[in-house]
TrEMBL record:
The lineage of its organism: Eukaryota, Metazoa, Ecdysozoa, Nematoda, Chromadorea. Keywords: Membrane, Receptor, Transmembrane, Transmembrane helix. The chain crosses the membrane at residues 36-61, 73-93. This is G protein-coupled receptor. Pfam families: 7TM_GPCR_Sri. PANTHER family: SERPENTINE RECEPTOR, CLASS I, SERPENTINE RECEPTOR, CLASS I-RELATED. InterPro entries: 7TM_GPCR_serpentine_rcpt_Sri. It comes from Caenorhabditis elegans.
Length: 141
């Protein structure tokens, strides 16, 4: 219910923003628009990551569906991804963080010493490029 109300408020705020678009300067409009997008993603991302798994667990436990207990057992993984989703949404939607992230990524990539080795484009057999795997079982022979 809170998600529906939040979506409605975001939609209404977007309509008001578009109505006053011609009164605002272009810079102010862009800042408001990017702030609205950032806020919407920061709220909707964790809501999906927390809300859906908790609802699924509730339905599975309440209806006593034993065949879906494996699905309910994986729900804590998605719930624990909450902070990662929030941080990712913040980095991807805020221009300052996005620029900082991409600049640092480019700097780290330039400092890396490893280079790609050229590979042949035509192979006779995929088996020829496979490396033997180490044995996990000790045979003592």
């Amino acid at each position: 219910m809170a998600g529906v109300i939040g979506f409605g408020l975001a939609w209404r705020t977007g309509q008001v923003l578009n109505r006053y678009r011609y009164i605002m300067s272009a810079r102010t409009y862009q800042l408001h628009k990017s702030s609205l997008i950032t806020l919407t993603t920061q709220v909707s991302g964790p809501t999906l990551v927390l809300g859906i798994p908790v609802f699924v667990v509730y339905v599975i436990v309440a209806s006593q569906m034993t065949q879906l207990h494996d699905l309910a057992a994986t729900a804590p993984f998605f719930i624990s991804a909450h902070s990662a989703v929030t941080t990712s949404c913040l980095i991807m939607t805020t221009a300052n963080y996005k620029n900082l992230f991409t600049k640092n990524y480019d700097n780290v990539r330039k400092k890396m010493k490893c280079k790609r080795t050229p590979t042949a484009s035509v192979m006779s057999s995929p088996v020829a490029v496979m490396r033997p795997m180490a044995s996990v079982v000790n045979t003592f022979f």
